Amino acid sequence: MDWSSRANGPLHGSVRVPGDKSVSHRALMLAAIAEGDSHIRGFLEGEDTRATAAVLAQLGVRIDTPSSGERVVHGAGLHGLRGTTQALDCGNAGTGMRLLAGLLAGQAFDSTLVGDASLSKRPMRRVTGPLALMGARIDTHDGLPPLHVHGGQPLQGIRYELPVASAQVKSALLLAGLYAAGDTEIIEPHPTRDYTERMLAAFGWPIAFAPGRAKLSGGHVLRATDVEVPADFSSAAFFLVAASIVPGSVLRLPAVGLNPRRTGLLQALQLMGADIAVEHRREAGGEPVGDLVVRHAPLHGVELPEALVPDMIDEFPALFVAAAVASGTTVIRGAAELRVKESDRIATMAAGLRALGATIEETPDGAIIHGGRLGGGTVESHLDHRIAMSFAVAGLVAAGAVRIGDCSHVATSFPGFLELANGCGFALQVAP
């Protein structure tokens, strides 16, 4: 399914983006191994999160759906999951697979985690390697999925310094640490999002954490709790960039999650001259949230501070678009992790932007983007949902229509994107 995006004038209105995918994954997993029933509201009804729910159901967890965006998870307790001989299909969910690897490493039964064609090409050694140091046995296909997790392995807590900052790897080790003897301590080279730490505390597990480090011990109990999932900042990112670059636009994005380890793009856009205000700051389910109001403003190129990179790793495709139409040059360094996401996002964004007439130089860990005007053309998403949505934004300011190849994976993180985008002024349609 291809999309076509074109210029259509200013964007206006209030855009309520779906619930945070990272929080939705973690809420399901912790509720599944908690004692008692947890009520999750604002749950992301995406393919990735539904895949995680289906895996947990295969493991014997009863999950009810009273209405769209709601889940009631009947916790099985820390040792209440049941094994299955069937493969556990994570779909396209890299977060789901990596976190489940940590969770399943401490179980008494064997499990096999599989994924779709895209996920099956994503590297897993950076999570299976440190889990092995804890005593886990996980077989891979030359470092790639499927993952065969051997049960019945006694786990031992470790002190581990991550070579590359990654919230997914940190979270997998912390989940394994719930089942390990002794302390599990994770040290990061740069602070990453702390959703897992915050949620473990909300479920009553003793954990000490600060930016760049987290420590817990095994042998405690998770207690069921209710979770309010904030709107996903990564989903809001496309509208922040769109309203910033389309003249005359004003958009309001209510109740967006503002976890400081997630909002690097907000700071990056403001450094580029964006007009984005945060109103009605508050907390929901232990997470900071606020209403974002974004108005069109002329953007200029910047040398992106490397300290922001870990806090915006999923938002770089949208930033590439902003940089491509800003005045001047934007320099991005320290973002090598982009090469091992759903696609090589540096190469994919560079190729697509060049197809639209942009001047961009790839570097091993980033890019140098010379801002200017974009033309129409055809780009490929490479089955990467964030690439597809970013080029939908690019089409709003391109001189001609932008055709985006194979956008079927957008539903993994943002169901209803096309309808929501068109509701505020996009001209986005399924291409014939």
Looking at this protein, list some descriptive labels.
alpha+beta, 432 residues, 28% helix
* Average pLDDT, all residues: 95
Taking the sheet with the most strands, its summary is:
4 strands, mixed
Separate helix tally:
12
Radius of gyration: 21 Å
Percentage of β-strand residues? 25-35%
Secondary-structure class? alpha+beta
N-C termini distance = 9 Å
DSSP summary, beta strand count: 23
Short structural summary:
The chain is an alpha+beta fold. The protein is 28% helix and 25% strand. The protein has helices spanning 21-32, 47-58, 94-104, 125-133, 167-177, 195-202, 233-245, 264-271, 316-325, 345-355, 385-394, 417-423; strands at 3-6, 12-14, 37-41, 62-64, 70-74, 88-89, 111-114, 138-141, 144-149, 159-161, 183-187, 207-210, 213-217, 227-228, 250-257, 275-284, 287-295, 329-332, 359-363, 366-370, 377-380, 402-405, 427-430.
Task: Describe the fold and architecture.
- This protein has helices at 21-32, 47-58, 94-104, 125-133, 167-177, 195-202, 233-245, 264-271, 316-325, 345-355, 385-394, 417-423, and strands spanning 3-6, 12-14, 37-41, 62-64, 70-74, 88-89, 111-114, 138-141, 144-149, 159-161, 183-187, 207-210, 213-217, 227-228, 250-257, 275-284, 287-295, 329-332, 359-363, 366-370, 377-380, 402-405, 427-430.
- It contains twelve helices and 23 strands.
- The longest helix has 13 residues, at 233-245.
- Strand 16 and strand 17 form a beta hairpin.
- The strands form six sheets. The chain has a four-stranded mixed beta sheet with strand order 21-22-1-23. Strands 2-15-17-16 form a four-stranded mixed beta sheet.
- It is of the alpha+beta class and 432 residues long.
